[in-house]
Amino acid sequence: MNADKVLDNFTIPKKYKLTKPVTVGDKTYSELDLNFDELTSEDMESVAKLPGCNSGDANMNEFSKTYLMHIVALAAGITINEVRKFAIADGTALTIMAQGFLMSAASRITAQ
């Protein structure tokens, strides 16, 4: 199986339905609108500066669940504290989606 082909075909949904609704404060979440395409390199840099998000190796941040949870929060327009309240299955799925988005972007790099 060609890994590049798999990454090229990786599709990130624009909506994610939570396994169960979560209420944080006065807001109840049953699904999230995800806007990974709207994130900027500035967002990536600001997340990397947050406590627990910088592995010390910039190439490894994409493997940090904390880093990825912050990316999910930015893509969904919510806070990290709201993301932390989601079921572990949702947290796992959402961080895999964030990682897939970041890695699929890297797959577009070609040797010149």
The tally of beta strands, per DSSP, is 2
Oligomeric state of the chains in view: single chain
Mean pLDDT figure: 83
**Whole-number tally of structural domains:** 1
Give the percentage of residues in beta strands. Answer: 15-25%
- Rg over CA atoms, rounded to whole Å, is 15 Å
Helix content: 40-55%
Cα separation of the termini: 24 Å
The low-confidence parts are: 1-7
Keywords:
5 helices, 15% strand, disordered N terminus, alpha+beta, two-stranded antiparallel ribbon, 112 residues
Give a concise summary.
With about 110 residues, this protein is an alpha+beta fold.
Describe this structure in words.
- This protein has 112 residues and is of the alpha+beta class.
- The protein has one domain (3-106).
- It has 5 helices and 2 strands.
- It has helices at residues 3-8, 41-48, 65-76, 80-84, 88-106, and strands at 15-24, 27-33.
- A two-stranded antiparallel sheet has the order 1-2.
- A hairpin with a 2-residue loop joins β1 and β2.
- α3 (65-76) crosses α5 (88-106).
- The longest helix is centred in the C-terminal third of the chain and has 19 residues, at 88-106.
- The chain is globular.
Question: Mind sketching the topology for me?
Answer:
Blueprint: H1 3-8, E1 15-24, E2 27-33, H2 41-48, H3 65-76, H4 80-84, H5 88-106
Antiparallel strand pairs: 1-2
Helix pairs in contact: 2-3, 3-5
